[in-house]
Amino acid sequence: xxxxxxxxxxxxxxxxxxxxxxxxxxxxxxxxxxxxxxxxxxxxxxxxxxxxxxxxxxxxxxxxxxxxxxxxxxxxxxxxxxxxxxxxxxxxxxxxxxxxxxxxxxxxxxxxxxxxxxxxxxxxxxxxxxxxxxxxxxxxxxxxxxxxxxxxxxxxxxxxxxxxxxxxxxxxxxxxxxxxxxxxxxxxxxxxxxxxxxxxxxxxxxxxxxxxxxxxxxxxxxxxxxxxxxxxxxxxxxxxxxxxxxxxxxxxxxxxxxxxxxxxxxxxxxxxxxxxxxxxxxxxxxxxxxxxxxxxxxxxxxxxxxxxxxxxxxxxx
Length: 317
Ligand code: UDP
Ligand code: MG
Prior knowledge:
GO terms for molecular function: glycosyltransferase activity. By secondary structure, this protein is α/β, with parallel strands linked by helices. About 50% of the residues lie in helices and about 15% in strands. A seven-stranded mixed beta sheet has the order 3-2-1-4-6-5-7, sandwiched between helices. The longest helix has about 35 residues, at about 270-305. The two termini are about 30 Å apart. Uridine-5'-diphosphate (UDP) binds near residues 82, 105, 106 and 215.
């Protein structure tokens, strides 16, 4: 019989004292079931990553580690944000598991699809995305801003899976590849599709947070969205360039129109030259900015130092 895989569940936690006990109860029940049914190895575990919480989160994790099965912990020295905390967790488990699932501590994402994720994994998928079926539990505001954001990302040419947050299963080799991306502005949802490999989606309904409050206020969300777009696309810079070209085009029209006015009806002295130079200089500045931006965009791509490819198989003789 094929060996059952060691599963690591990675849970970033920031000030989650209100939800940890319940979350651990639910997750360990699930692990227990999966282990007795032989789907995963008894060595499977849950890694709680404490993202520099100032409340009792780490104490609770330590307590869970000592007194309950499956619980492991990683304490970060300070708050580094959800994406970095998740990355720290994945980095810690990459050599200690066969597959890793990342999920938020509030269990808003339905853990009952984990068996389905594992099934896809067994069928040969390296990455299984958890995708929300609908957004009924979200406020109207969050729903629309999210939609605008996904559209914008697509427009900017960044690959991303619609309605997928950071709930996903990754094989250990996919995690190892992800860890080769060394950039600091982490936007994991954009990076994971760059890995390649065979992928699949499982669909679920998202619940409300069962306790505690969201750690993603609007400002953080906005910053995250800006990070997402600017980390994956130099298109905004290119837009400056094209805007400059439009300005120059307008300048040509304005020139013709101004000269016509100048010769036909005696305009106020100075008006014509001002009109023409205004548009021409504006256009020239924008085009120059676009050109400089194009180089900066290149530097940006270089300093991110992303892996150029991911070798899946090499056949030699
Ligand atoms: N989180 C974190 N560091 C932070 C903010 C959030 O590790 O600085 C964790 C948090 O504990 C939770 C996950 O990221 O497990 C998602 O946060 P939350 O549920 O508050 O976001 P929302 O679901 O409201 O978007
Ligand atoms: Mg949440």
